[in-house]
C-alpha cells in the first residue's frame, strides 16, 4: 500500500497501513533485514506498554515530513553511498565553501595493515575552514540574526544568547588575540573549560586560524591534564577560575596550576594561561594568580577587532586532538582532520535528527567529549542550527531541570545519555510530567547502549509516546554517528541502534576475523573508510595501527561486541577490551589500576566493569594490600580518593573488593574473566580454574565478597 493511499484512511486503518508499508519495504534494507514476521508493534502516538511491543513505527504525519521518509529512500541513498562513495560524498561536500576544490581523487584509503601503513584521505588538495563554514557561510546566507547559542547557566535565572553574527564577532576577537600572542597554524591549544559560551568560542577561534584545539573535560584531575599538556605541548592553556555544578564549586584554575607545575617538571613549560572570570562561581580576588603567565580573558580579548581573516587549511590538515582512554593506561590522542570531519558531522547531524531550520536543538553532553565536538559545536552550527548550551547539573535545583530548560527554550530535539535517562527514570515520572514538553519532536541517546526498559520510559514518559528515538552508536575515533535510526524512515526496536548511516559498512566477525552473515553475535568491525574517521593517534601511528587495525586485518576494529537479529537490526553489547564505559566516559582499566597501585598501601589491583543501573557500567576493583596492612574502611576511602585525585571523580570505583591474592595463571597473567564473573555474581559460570597457579584464590575471593 502506498503512502498516498494511507493518508485518506481512518485512524485505525492508518496504523495498520503504516505498519504494512514499512514491513513490505523492509525486505529491501541491507545487512540481512528481511520481512518482519510479527506485528507486535505500536505507531508513534501510541503508548509502548509491554515488553511484547518490540517495534515502534513512524506515523505517516512524521514520515511525510522527514528528510528520509521510507526504507526505500534510505536504501537508494545507502546503496549509492557504498557503490559510489566519491560521487555521494563530493555531491554533499559541494554544499560547503571550499577555497580550492579537491583533487580528481575524492578519497584514498588503505585499511589493511598487510598492504602497508594505514592511511585515509578525503578531499585531499582542497582548502577550506570549518569556522568559516559554521559562521560566515550562514551569515552570508542571511542568518546573521538567528540565534546560534542559547546559554543556560548553573542557576535557572542565569542565561544568555548569541546570534550567528555576535558569535562570529566573539570568535574573531579571540582568534585575533591568539594570533597576537604567537599562536600559528598547526600549534596546539589546550582548552580546559566548563560549558560556558567561551568553550565553543575557543574551539571555533582555534579552527579559524588553523590552530589545533585539544579540549580536556573539566572534570579531569591535574595529573590527567598534565599528561595531555606533556603530550601535545600547547602554546597556551585556556581555562576559567572556577565553575559551580549544582551547589558544588570546582576550582579549575587550581587544577590547571597544579598541572602546569607537573608538566614543567617533565620539560614542558606553558608560558600563558588565559583565564575566564566566572563571576557566578568565584570572585577575581580569590583566584590564585601567577603574574606574567596568567591573563584574564575579560581584560584582553574584548579589545581585539571583531573581524579576523580566515586561515585556509588543507582538508587533511589537523582540526583537533581529543584524548581518550586506552587499555595501556596512557591516554590516546585521537587526531581528526578538517574536510572529511566537517562534511561527515554536518551530514550525520542533519539526517539522524531529521533537522529542520526551525528546530531548537539541545545536546546535554560536554564539549570535553567527542559528542560535544561533533553535536554541540560543529555539526549543528554547520547546519545553521540553534543550540542550547547548559553549564549546570541536570538534577539542580531539582530533577525537573532538564524539562524546565526544554520548556524555556522550546527544545525540539533532545539528545542525551542513557545514564541520564536511567537517573531521571529512577526519580519518578512526576518531575517530567509536570512540564509541558510538547515542543519535543525527536529524542536521541548517545554514549552507550540504552537498555530497553530505559528506552521505553524515554519514549512513553518523556516523549509522550509520540517522538522517535535516535539511539546512536559511534565513537571518539569515528568522528560522527555510524549506526543510527533515521527518524521517519523505518520502525525502531527499543535498545537497537538499527542500521548503518550512509557510507558506513559494518560487519560482524568471529574470533578468527571471518565475516558472519545473518542473525549472529561477534565483534563489530568496519570495512572501508568514511569521511569522519580519525587519521592517527598523535605521535604514535604504530599504536593506532596495532590497536584498531591489527586485531582483524582488513577492518577497523571498534572494540565493541555486537549482535544482529533476524530482521537485520544491530544491537551493541558493550566493550570487549579493557575499557569501561561509565556514564559515557571511556575509562581504561589500566588507568584506574595505576591510580590504585600508586597508593602506598596497595600492592596490586585489578579492575573490571560491571553492570550499573544508572551509569551503564560501574567500576569494580579487586585490591591486594601491602603485606601486614589490614583491610579497613579508612583505607577503602583513601583508595577511592587516590583515583579521584589522579583521574577524576567519574573514575572512582563503585566497589572495592579486598583480595588477599588475585587469580593468576602460572605465567602470572591475571584471569580477568574470573574476576568479571565474581563481580557480576555469576558464580556458576566461573569455568575451568585448574589452569590457575593457585585455584584456592577463587574461593577466598568469593568468601570475601560483600554480595
Automatic annotation (TrEMBL):
Chain ranges of the AMP-binding enzyme C-terminal domain: 591-669
Domain Acetyl-coenzyme A synthetase N-terminal: 74-134
Pfam family for this entry, one: AMP-binding_C
InterPro entries: Ac_CoA_lig, ACAS_N, AMP-bd_C, AMP-binding_CS, AMP-dep_synth/lig_dom
GO molecular function: 4-coumarate-CoA ligase activity; acetate-CoA ligase activity; AMP binding; ATP binding; trans-cinnamate-CoA ligase activity
Coiled-coil regions listed: none
Keyword Phosphoprotein assigned: no
Keyword annotations: ATP-binding, Ligase, Nucleotide-binding
Entry keyword annotation includes ATP-binding: yes
Biological process per Gene Ontology, one example term: acetyl-CoA biosynthetic process from acetate
Residue ranges occupied by any AMP-dependent synthetase/ligase domain in the UniProt entry: 142-529
Catalytic activity: (E)-4-coumarate + ATP + CoA = (E)-4-coumaroyl-CoA + AMP + diphosphate
Family designation: Belongs to the ATP-dependent AMP-binding enzyme family.
This protein's name: Acetate--CoA ligase
Organism in which the protein naturally occurs: Zingiber officinale (Ginger)
